[in-house]
Design brief:
about 35% helix; Beta-lactamase; alpha+beta; 2 domains
Length: about 300
Amino acid sequence: MAQAPKTHLGAKTCAPAHSGSCATGSIEPHASGIFEGRIDELRKILESARGEWAVVIEDLDGKGSLRLNARSPFTAASVIKIPIMMTAFHQARQGKIRLDDTIILRSEDKVGGSGVLREFHSGLALTLLDCIHMMIVVSDNTGTNLTMDAVGREEVNRYMTEKGCENSRLEAHLMRPKPEGPWNKITASDIALLLRGLADRTIENPGDCDTMIEIMKRQQYNHKMPRLLPKGVACAHKTGEVRGVTHDAGIVYGPSARFVIVCLSQKLEDVKIGDNVIGEVTKWAYDLLAGAADTD
């Protein structure tokens, strides 16, 4: 019987990313503030799902942060839709495109996977903002590709680079990968950087940041990050999943805790277990941060 893959949780002995001797190029874990000395608690939660994991948590009020395999490359799945959305708002603010530009849905635009636009009739008139909403709220792959075509794939990569992302790349349309790669990839560190910029209202026009966060709050796939959070806690987030992969990345807004959290995984045997683990990690972080607030 084949042995199950071990969980890759950023052991201190793992080689640097450039050495090629570690599957995910992990770096030594880092924790500060309320998370200091709690890396093993996180590892214990992740172990049940096995596979490879990256986690970044950043409290918005300075109570602490945690980074595990933060710069390791992971299959992007639909989390890549966050920088695609941000590029569109950036270009609209620059006057290069308009969010109310009309896009005509064609039969050749329709792709499989998540979303509903493939079920609509060809010739349907949409706005670019409609496509962005569909891309984020129901993770529509057709809407994503239409948005990509409007802003340009390399413009998304340029945007990520300019904002400080080091190891994330958009290489192909959704559901139309290049047969031999390269494939879309992200790191937890890069996605956390973008989300922190949105939360702080500094990465783009403050009103645009607010609008993007509100779109992400309307996310319809809520079986991961928000699953175990208390009532009244809002989550602006974007999920992602392909075979052996489940992600969730977002901003948690609660009465006693506000934080960015990115959970990425790959090489999972059972993504449903991974979904549950993401919920458990988010609840663990929320409880720690909310408890710290109660003692202030």
